[in-house]
Each structure stands twice: as structure tokens, then as C-alpha cells.
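Practice problem: predict the structure.
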Amino acid sequence: MTIHKAPFPWFGGKSRVAHVVWDRFGNVPNYVEPFAGSLAVMLKRPHEAHTETVNDKDCYVANFWRALQRDPEGVAFHADNPVNECDLHARHLWLHQQSEFRERLKREPEFYDARVAGYWCWGLCSWIGDNF
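Answer:
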């Protein structure tokens, strides 16, 4: 069984306590993660997966996982940039202005945007604190 690392940091994430969660839960047949974020606990599951249900209200989280599944190269292309203050603030502002994107994501189950996913992931990895 391969244990994976979360692809981005998540403020309030549970990656450091994932082993404690699995020690207490054991090999449950149905794992439910109501606040998915980076999926750190699920990705560190030490057992073969059974049924896993994940949820997160954050549209950028949903978009990231959709885009990563369908276009990992596109996500990686948009996430692969050196960190500099100007780009960090420009992408932060641009992402927060994407109201039509968020509404479309809620209406269309197959919709995703690899650019948004890459910028968002890059920003999470570069930003200090929460609220990227």
C-alpha cells in the first residue's frame, strides 16, 4: 500500500495527525472526510481503500481535484513558477475575482480549469498564513 503526501499545505490540515486517526479508526469500510482540503488523512491511509467519501465547500478545492484528475500536466504547468511577491499578489487578486468560474463549477460537474488549479496550488504553497 502506497502512502501519499498531500500535494499542497492546508491551513488547519491534519497531515501531522493522520497516523493517529488511522490508529484509532483502523481499517474502516467507509471513510468520510467532511472537510477535504488537501485530503492529507485519506492520502495517508495505511490500508487498501474501500469506500471513501470526501467533501469540501471550497470551489478551489473541488476544482483542484477535478483538474488534477483530468489534466495533471496542465495543473503542473500553471503551478510551476518561481515565487515572487508581484506574481503572488497578482494571482491572489485574479483568483478572488473569478466569480463566474465558481458559479460554473457549481453548475457543471465535469467543468474544471487547470490554470485556476495551478495558480491556486502555487499560491497555497507560497503564501504565508491562510486565506490565499
